[in-house]
Design goal:
This protein is an alpha+beta fold. The protein has helices spanning 13-23, 39-42, 63-72, 86-115, 126-144, 157-171, 179-189, and strands spanning 3-6, 28-30, 52-55, 58-61. Helix content is 50%, strand content 8%. Strand 3 (52-55) and strand 4 (58-61) form a beta hairpin. Helix 1 packs antiparallel against helix 6 (157-171) and helix 3 (63-72) runs antiparallel to helix 6 (157-171). The protein starts with a strand and ends in a 10-residue tail after the last helix. The chain binds glutathione.
Length: 199
């Protein structure tokens, strides 16, 4: 595969970078200040957000979709459950759960803290966002008290996608008391290629 990744540091782009590194696929990186919302990226992806991957000349966006596609096409390494298998259903399940039941709450807080211009922000929902993230995180914590990884109990791209969301919660101070998630992140951080922010 010929891949160019439009990326931005430890943001959601890090999911794609990590997947490519684990897959052993070399790629070109495009990263510079003010890349998001630039005309160049708007031409590739609605809203001009990052990441975007140009794969063999075609643009693919949404970090989870990019990671899943790359994992499906990674030569010589088994990074994702087989399409059509029950385990693949679990990949879709946990990916959807992380993006809709966890990450969306953190994104709402981010949007109303620094993403939108001040006059467009609403500052009423922060506590509720933290509570709702915590509720979902607690459910995921219960699962990860009984297994090391999410699908087939082995490291897969599912952990790259979901782990990023868990790590965002950690950075927001939302993992207190959730020892299953803390240990899960330690397992991910131990992997030498993990590019997630560890501060
Ligand atoms: N659901 C999208 C989210 C993409 C996203 O929000 N990217 C951020 C960086 S992490 C961005 O480009 N922000 C610029 C903006 O909001 O205009 C994905 O996972 O790819």
């Amino acid at each position: 595969m010929d891949i160019t990744l439009y990326e931005s540091g430890a943001s959601r782009s890090a999911r794609c970078r990590w997947t490519l590194l684990e897959a052993g696929i070399s790629f070109e990186s495009v990263a510079r200040p003010n890349l998001a919302r630039s005309d160049e990226v708007k031409a590739l992806r609605p809203l001009g957000k990052l990441p975007v991957a140009i794969i063999d000349g075609r643009a693919l966006f949404e970090s989870a979709a990019i990671c899943t596609y790359i994992a499906d096409h990674a030569p010589g390494i088994d990074l994702i459950a087989k399409p059509g298998s029950w385990a693949r259903g679990q990949h879709d399940q946990w990916t959807s759960f992380a993006l809709t039941e966890m990450e969306a709450w953190l994104w709402n807080t981010a949007v109303n803290t620094f993403v939108l211009p001040e006059e467009q922000r609403v500052d009423a929902g922060f506590e509720q966002n933290a509570m709702m993230y915590g509720r979902s995180a607690s459910g995921l914590n219960d699962v990860l008290l009984g297994q090391d990884f999410l699908v087939e109990n082995r490291f897969t791209v599912t952990d790259i996608i979901v782990g990023w969301t868990v790590n965002w919660g950690r950075r927001q101070g939302l993992l207190d008391g959730l020892s299953g998630l803390q240990a899960y992140l330690e397992r991910l951080f131990e992997r030498p290629l993990c590019p997630f922010a560890k501060d």
